[in-house]
Write a structure and sequence with these properties.
alpha+beta; Glutaredoxin; 4-stranded mixed sheet; 9 helices
């Protein structure tokens, strides 16, 4: 692959986690450039110039800058088609996008750090109220996702078929962040089966937050 790829992310960012899995699945070497969300580095002048949304992750490929995790993953798949992380048919591709968006648009934003900070600092929501927020929104999203997976014959070893796709790249980090805020995952058998299959792959293992260079030692 021409030019160096640099992933600007944070060890515990689930959006950056998705992209790390995708890069690993495709066997693409990259530079991991930490941006500390806790220290507010996403708001620095240098980073905002690259990503005006002040969000992670950002991928820099030579002079190209790609933002948003889903766009980054599809870019990787189009730039280096093999091994694929998107299926080939229009139906399958639409389904993978549906599953990925169910996580990225309908579950993850409701537990995003900037949302939680706003609830705490501006609306003065207590820790108990934030916990209740998590317990309401995340299980509702996972229940819908479980139904989408369990009811469709396209679900096999992974979210779509027998090879991992962008949908699996999104699912696993969401499960990680859901566990971190105390959500019980035992009621989602299809999701858990897929998660066990993903856990057998080195690409998913190496992408875990605790193995990142900026993770607390």
């Amino acid at each position: 692959m021409k030019n160096t790829l640099t992933l600007y992310g944070y060890w515990r960012s689930s959006a950056a986690w998705r992209v790390r899995i995708a890069l690993n699945l495709k066997g693409i070497d990259y530079i991991n450039q930490p941006v500390s969300l806790i220290n507010g580095e996403q708001h620095s002048e240098r980073y905002v110039e690259m990503n005006p949304q002040e969000l992670l992750p950002t991928l820099k490929h030579g002079e190209r800058v790609i933002r948003q995790s889903l766009a980054i993953m599809e870019y990787l798949d189009e730039f280096q088609p093999e091994p694929a992380i998107m299926p080939t048919t229009a139906r399958e591709r639409a389904r993978v996008r549906t599953l990925a968006l169910a996580v990225c648009c309908d579950i993850h934003p409701l537990q995003n750090l900037r949302v939680m900070k706003y609830l705490e600092t501006q609306l003065h929501i207590s820790e108990a109220q934030r916990a209740a927020w998590f317990q309401h929104f995340i299980p509702a999203g996972l229940k819908a996702l479980e139904t989408l997976l369990a009811s469709n014959p396209g679900t096999a070893e992974f979210c779509e078929g027998d090879t991992p796709s962008i949908a699996d790249c999104c699912l696993i980090p969401q499960l990680g962040s859901s566990t971190r805020v105390g959500v019980d995952l035992s009621g989602y058998p299809t999701i858990n089966r897929i998660a066990r299959n993903c856990a057998q792959l080195d690409a998913f293992e190496r992408a875990k937050p605790e193995f990142q260079p900026d993770a607390p030692k």
